[in-house]
Specification:
alpha/beta, 30 helices, three-stranded antiparallel β-sheet, eight-stranded mixed β-sheet, 17 strands, 48% helix
């Protein structure tokens, strides 16, 4: 008989005599039948524990021993299955056999699967239930563990906090501490009522500090003059020519010459100061930042002027962003250490005074502002809006002033011009001396690459491509070799220049006898360098690209930092080899840090497969040094090059930049090895000592270069070396002050040499072709030396070299000619200018400028042609 699913399992009237049991909550039953319970002997078979295996919950909990057993007890059996004790129930006789049979048939019919697919489905459901039960149990355990850990941690924190609190209370209860607390409580009232510094006081501080920084920056641009013993110079002249006299003149020209350049620099620095004030909204914090930063800038600017005759420019900050700040600091000469220490002391005082005034000043915000409740009141709303507006406007004005200062016709340029500003950015040092280093720096924040040449268009560039393709074909008819059949090694030898070329300096021993002999037997000459004391990357850029700094705008001072990083696919001569051999076509070696002048990124843009440096992924292997020198020797660098050549699978282009003779020139070498020079009596001792150390380094370069070429002669591969010095070191202080010697300070030496395995071994071009050159011509000259076929681009450079032997950005008064951004040499070494050139020279120069503009600032139309391709 089926029972209702909600009825109790045991009938209360049948168990009234049974000891007390606790009845569980009713469980829903889907359907089933009653079965008799087992007798006493078989009670274990159908005990509640047994029944629990067939039902989802336990029915009763026993509280005391069973005293009697009913002979007619019945139990409800679910229709979902049968009980193992069913036979015993039948034998007990508590239920009629017909009823049992009937129920068994019903249960059996329910258990028999009518559809075979239901049994696997039930098994899947069962497995899912068990998995869900296991997962829930695991999560429950994890939850209990986490709660327990949290409680333990919270208890530990609470214990620690209590201990600290008790210790603090113990400490402040000391009598001495109580006295201090009472003192500060009494002092807090007056401290809270301390005065707010007035805006008038801020204005005074602003004016004084900005003026002091303008004077400090200008002071670093000058050096004390020297006079020959025979010169009769009156005291007034000496005072006016001194550093103090020149700074005084710079300031006083506002009244004496109506040139307010001091005001132009004051406005430039003042805009920086104001931007810091409004952005931080803290006057004293902004003062601290401004004073510290500008003082540090002035120190660095003075040292760079001393070493390289060049002021700090915006592009120099790529050294810092590239992680080279520590490396740059290593260039500080010994005689500047005291200056640096004094500047550090000044900076410490600035920081201390600003922090003290910040504490004393009750006015924390320069403009009242409440960020927590910006619109709680009209005062808060106005303050919040004013504070944000002032910050934005100050930054916008500063950016507009700086980016327009170097652009003719702009508002800031026209205003500065009315104050006497006359830019001469082709000579940044001279511009900084005349106009102030702050103005020079700001005018270079936005540097236009080139002015657009007249007639530039796609049609014009296509015409130029055809024109010089014909010239290349004409030249190639008489040439039998290919550039890519040889390995070309372009070596930039750091500060290599014949030290005997300058007047008033003689040596008992020739510092460079071997290279002098090599230059006499192979293609060689004098190179016109745009740099003095620095500018290595500029000369290197010209040699790799064939482009000249003389064609760029005055504000394009360092292409490696201002131009190349912004180009997507700049051309360089190593690509002649990579176009044929792929990645194995060119590599570079520089035994210093790869981020200097951004060489790591620039070389990748040029297509070099590897740059081997001190800190590259695969560093240079040979790093030996000479004496106490901090730089890798030339002999070690040459050994790295030899290793690359021995392991190469095909000819390649190798770019090498040495470091051995880099400034400063301290006592690196053994005293007995140092060359001794004779100089005039009025040459300062520091200059004389530096000349001797520098010349000793050249002696080591001379021997290392001879050994290197000898080893190349032992290699049965055609190899051509292009060797050149980039610039003179900035140690010739006396010559710097003599206009007649300024041109000599821009002359270095170069040679092009081929080993015995090369078809061009022992070739020497005539001096009429090679006596004078500039680094942008080196590849075209090397191709001529090697009798190799050339591209239309190299044909242009070849023809241009014939007509204008050297082009550079140089300032010189030689021959009484005042030169601007570009210097041109005739074949006899005399200086000319563009107005005095022949029609052919002017046309070649105009074509050259169009090609350079197209590659750097234009649409790069020549890329669509074969202008750069070598057949």
């Amino acid at each position: 008989m089926l029972k209702d699913a909600t009825m109790p399992i045991f009938s209360p009237d049948r168990h009234a005599h049974v000891p007390s049991y606790v009845k569980l909550t009713k469980q829903p039953i889907a359907g089933g039948t009653y079965r008799p319970l087992a007798n006493d002997e078989d009670s274990n078979a159908c005990a509640p524990s047994t029944l629990s295996g067939h039902h989802s919950s336990r029915l009763y909990t026993q509280k005391s021993a069973i005293r009697a057993i009913s002979d007619n007890t019945s139990i409800f059996i679910s229709g979902a299955g049968t009980l193992p004790c069913l036979p015993e129930m039948v034998s007990s006789g508590s239920v009629s056999k017909a009823e049992i049979d009937n129920n068994e048939q019903i249960a059996s019919s329910e258990l028999q699967p009518h559809q075979p697919a239901e049994q696997p489905l039930n098994q899947v459901v069962s497995v899912c239930k068990r998995a869900a039960h296991t997962t829930a149990k695991t999560l429950s355990t994890a939850g209990h563990t986490a709660v327990k850990a949290t409680k333990v941690t919270g208890h530990a924190i609470h214990t620690a906090a209590t201990a600290v609190k008790n210790a603090w209370h113990t400490f402040i209860n000391f009598k001495a501490v109580q006295l201090i607390i009472k003192f500060f409580r009494k002092a807090y009232g007056p401290w809270k009522k301390r005065m707010r510094f007035s805006y008038a006081f801020y204005a005074i501080v602003f004016t004084l500090l900005t003026s002091a920084e303008v004077v400090f920056l200008q002071w670093g641009m000058y050096s004390e003059p020297t006079y020959d013993k025979g010169d009769e110079v009156d005291q007034t002249t000496k005072i006016l020519n001194s550093v103090a006299g020149q700074v005084t003149k710079f300031v006083s020209q506002m009244w004496l010459e109506q040139k307010s350049l001091f005001l132009v620099n004051f406005v430039g620095l003042g805009l920086i100061y104001l931007a810091l004030i409004f952005v931080t909204n803290r006057f004293w914090i902004a003062t601290l930042l401004f004073g510290t930063a500008i003082t540090a800038f002035g120190v660095a600017n003075s040292i760079k002027i001393q070493l390289r005759n060049e002021p700090i420019i915006p592009a120099d900050f790529t050294f810092i962003s590239g992680g080279d700040a520590g490396n740059i600091a290593s260039f500080i000469p010994d005689n500047s250490q005291q200056f640096v220490e004094n500047a550090v002391t000044v900076v410490i005082w600035i920081i201390a005074i600003c922090l003290l005034l910040f504490l004393l000043d009750r006015r924390k915000c320069f403009i009242y502002c409440s960020w927590r409740k910006p619109f709680a009141s009209a005062k808060n709303t106005v303050g919040t809006f004013s504070r944000a507006l002032a910050a934005v406007v100050s930054v916008v004005i500063l950016a507009s002033y700086a980016t327009n200062l170097g652009t003719g016709g702009s508002w800031s340029n026209m205003w500065a011009a009315k104050q006497g500003y006359t830019p001469t950015l082709f000579d940044a040092a001279e511009d900084a001396r005349n106009n102030g280093p702050a103005t020079t720096f700001l005018s270079l924040t936005k540097a236009p690459t080139m002015d657009k040449p007249e007639g530039y268009s796609k049609q014009k560039m296509q015409a130029i491509s055809k024109k010089y393709s014909k010239l290349a074909n004409s030249i190639n008819k008489s040439r039998t070799q290919q550039l890519t059949d040889s390995t070309a090694i372009m070596i930039l030898s750091e500060t290599f220049a014949d030290p005997t070329r300058l007047p008033d300096i003689t040596f008992d021993e020739d510092p460079i006898p071997n290279i002098r002999n090599i230059m006499g037997t192979t293609t060689s000459g004098t190179m016109l360098s745009p740099g003095y004391g620095g500018g290595t990357a500029n000369i290197e850029y010209q040699a790799l690209t064939g482009l000249s700094l003389a064609n760029f705008s005055d504000s394009m001072i360092v292409p490696y930092q201002q131009l190349v990083p912004t180009q997507s696919n700049p051309y360089s001569f190593n690509q002649i080899w990579t176009q044929k051999y792929g990645e194995s076509g060119s590599e570079a070696v520089h035994p210093y840090y790869q981020s200097m002048y951004l060489r790591n990124t620039n070389y990748k843009k040029f297509g070099f497969s590897h740059l081997y440096s001190l800190d590259s992924a695969t560093p240079v292997e040979h790093t030996e040094k000479i004496g106490e020198s901090p730089y890798v020797s030339d002999s070690s660098t040459y050994q790295d090059v030899l290793d690359l050549i021995k392991n190469q699978k095909n000819p390649e282009f190798l770019q090498v930049v040495t470091m051995q003779n880099h400034m400063p020139y301290s006592n690196y070498y053994e005293a007995e090895d140092v060359l001794q020079s004779s100089v005039t009596d009025d040459t300062p001792d520091d200059e004389h000592s530096a000349i001797n150390v520098f010349s000793t380094g050249l002696k080591y370069t001379d021997q290392a270069t001879l050994d290197f070429l000898s080893q190349l002669n032992q290699i049965n591969k055609p190899i051509t070396v292009i060797f050149y010095g980039d610039h003179l070191p900035g140690i010739y202080l006396k010559e710097e002050q003599n206009p007649d010697d300024s041109f000599l300070l821009h002359e270095t030496d170069y040679f092009i040499w081929s080993n015995d395995a090369s078809p061009s071994a022992n070739v020497k071009l005539d001096d009429s072709e090679a006596a004078f050159s500039s680094s942008n011509y080196f590849m075209s000259s090397a191709a001529e030396h090697m009798n190799a076929k050339i591209s239309p681009y190299l044909a242009l450079l070849t023809k241009l070299h014939e007509e204008i032997p050297a082009i550079s950005r140089v300032i010189s008064n030689r021959g009484g000619i005042g030169l601007g951004t570009a210097t041109y040499l005739q074949s006899d070494g005399t200086v000319t200018d563009s107005t005095s050139m022949s029609k052919t020279q002017k046309q070649l120069l105009a074509d050259y400028k169009l090609v350079q503009y197209d590659q750097t600032s234009g649409k790069n139309y020549l890329k669509e042609s074969d202008f750069m391709s070598v057949d």
